[in-house]
Design a protein that fits this description.
Helix content: 40-55%
Radius of gyration: 41 Å
Strand order of the largest sheet: 24-25-27-28-29-30-31-32
Strand content: 15-25%
Distance between the termini: 156 Å
Largest sheet: 8 strands, mixed, barrel
Mean pLDDT: 79
Number of strands: 32
Length: 876
Amino acid sequence: MAVTPDRDRGALPALRRLAAPLVVFLLVGVLSLLAAHRIAVRDREAMLDRDLAEQVGVTEARIERFGSLVAGAAAHYSQTRHDPAMVTDTELQRYMRSVGADERYDDLPHGLTYIARVREDQVESYEFRRQMGRPRFEVQDGPFRVHQAIIWAQSADVGAHGARLDVDPERATVLEESLRLDEVMMTPPVRGIVDGARVVNIYGPIISRSGEGLGWIGTRVAVDQVVAASDGEAALTITDHNLPVIGEAVPEGHLQRTATLEAMGRTWQIVDHAPTPFVGGAALVICGLLALSAALAVAVVQQSRRRLVSDADSVRRDRDRYAMFIDTMLATVGVGIIACDDRGQIVVVNDAAVQMNGGVAPTGTPDAWLQADTLRDLDGDPLELERMPLFRALRGEDVHDEEVVVDDGGGPRTYLVQAKPLHGDAQRVAGAVLAMNDITDRKAAEAETSRQALRDDLTGLANRRRLTVDLAAALADHRDGGRDVTLLFMDLDRFKLVNATTGPHRGDHMLVEIARHLEEAVHDGDVAARMGGDEFVILCRHATSTAEARALAHRITAAVQPALVVEGAQPVRTGASIGVVRPDRGADVEDVLRQADLAMYEAKRDSGSAIRVYEPRLDQDAVIEFATESALRVAVADRTLDLVFQPITTIPGGQVEAVEALVRWHHGGLVLTPASFLPLADEAALTPEIDLLVLDLACRAVAAAPSRPSVHVNLASRTLARPDLMRQVALTLARHDLAPERLCLEVGETVLDGGAPDVVETLRGLSATGVRLALDDFGVRTASLSHLRGMPLDVVKVHRSVVAGFGSDDADEALAAAAVRVAASRGVRTVAAGIETEAQMRAAARIGCDLAQGFLVGRPGPRPAPASATPLPATA
């Protein structure tokens, strides 16, 4: 049956009325998909930015960590007079132990390498000298330059002795540049010999005091030791002048972020990349529903076209149903949608857009949009009409990924917007659609992540990174004529004792309390930071003189004083030492931190819990101290310390019963006593090595002495804390065939006052083997008599400060007499130390001392030979 023309003409207008909603429907689906895709891309890019920043920071820190080890070793050998041909593996291993490399650089399997710089005409001579200590040493053949770079010694057993490093032109160039510039430098990445992994070599120059280039200290580091693996889907690609360091070329279609890392003469291009993300799951579901709805709409339209010929009412019902579909979809999608016609009249607004607009639906034409005045840019300024994304789309512009702020009085919210024009016939703009996505929470999370990266986890103060940034900015302002800069470096005294006696949790509590008091004490605009451990720094901009800086330091000391007492099993009180520096206009961050650190250690060295202001002489003192420490290490390693022996005689009679071994160091044309260099040795943790060396030399000397005296040897607290002390003493006695009862180990009262269980157990174990024990410096502290009851002592030495009062101070003589009586009741002998007058000798005899030591009895001599008997003066 043919369709009548009248009915057919009625169907066409109905189809045209359905076309506009269908176009809007499909456009909404496309814009929603685009918005969801852009959000996923932005999230992935933000992830890459964070990962890249972390990679650059970690890589730079690790390279600097290995570089600092090389730089320190190179500086050590530059300051130390030495023959390159005589440097040994053992010496490098000893240096590694001295700087704690086993703990700090446990991921460095190749350790350190000493590379000698030898002229070609001296190679055979060097090789011959080296073969005296290492018979199999042989310099390898190959093409060489004028100077030879030869591996001489290694702290790790990697079998490369004698290898010539100038075979590789690139490596030879780096070596010569390092020497010319006097800087630590790094080679390009190369394939390793053993496993084929890429490695880099780091070299530091060794330049003698006369300016001669002696060689280099080097190390080999696998690339994966300085580059951390990326998390998630991110991948890392690093190149060095187009040479691959790690990773492969970036695949096509990957999102990427690039950074440049300058380190030790090398320039690395670091690219963090990841596949372009697909649309998220929720957006895919929504877009799938849109596509499915569109397909259903097309199918329904096709069916309706056949029905419209006979029933126009049915067409209108179908149109309403399609409109309902669109309304439902717009209501459920999480993206705010706003559409307008070609005149700017708002025609579509979904619920999400209403909520994003403060619960008010945008209406009217562009003039009405401005009345609400809630749309602002990122600086908080209201947007003019020409800058509004929807208005720009209505003028034919595509708007992608712009951030705007809506503030309707309930707090600002940030939105990521997309806007697109709708084109009608002949590309005429028939309207525009805008999609908005709320990214406020995401931006807040990113801001919080950035904030936490600059805060100390325990105390909440600024961390080292934040302090470095703020200090650099303050110094730059100071150079440009701005306000003065003052830096206070505070370190807690005896903080290790807090952790050891009360537990780490109470130590952490103390640090948190100190941080709270610091924040309350500093001036507005000051920065209080925790550098790590028990070190704090205050950056101040309001102090205009050194006097004001000192006043600030005293105020801080008083403010944190309540937090310096920890209540535990026993109350523990510590103190704070503060270094103050007011830098010149040309100072940089590293200079200021180093100067503040020097001033702080000067405060600790003086008395602790003190305040010291940086002076230029501290730099000179630090250089001298470093050189002295290096020389002392060499003296200990080469066993060039000397001993003298002071006799200990009987009362009465004056017969030599024992000698005390006293160490001397010949340095700088002087003969130094322990009082002048042992404090430095204790700071450098050298006292155990010195004590064991003195023990060995003393036992060897008395074992060979014809008179066969016993020998007294002093042991410091660090030595007594060694777990292998009993074994070392036993080996020394066996090496020199010396009976245990001929050795007397002297320990100070300060060691016994600590009461460390391990030390007490060690002393009891030594006593059980037959070695005698002496309590030194009796009378210096108040707890002296208690030691006579609690320890397996054989001898008590009355301190020279007490003996000095014999014959003139009744209190000193009474104290010594009480000790003598308690000691005698327990079978312990007593020695009066520091006797210089006959009156003191008579007093020592009067109160019952068994032995005497001092200049009146005998001065220290080079051999443990017996002195002539010193007759006892007649008693008064």
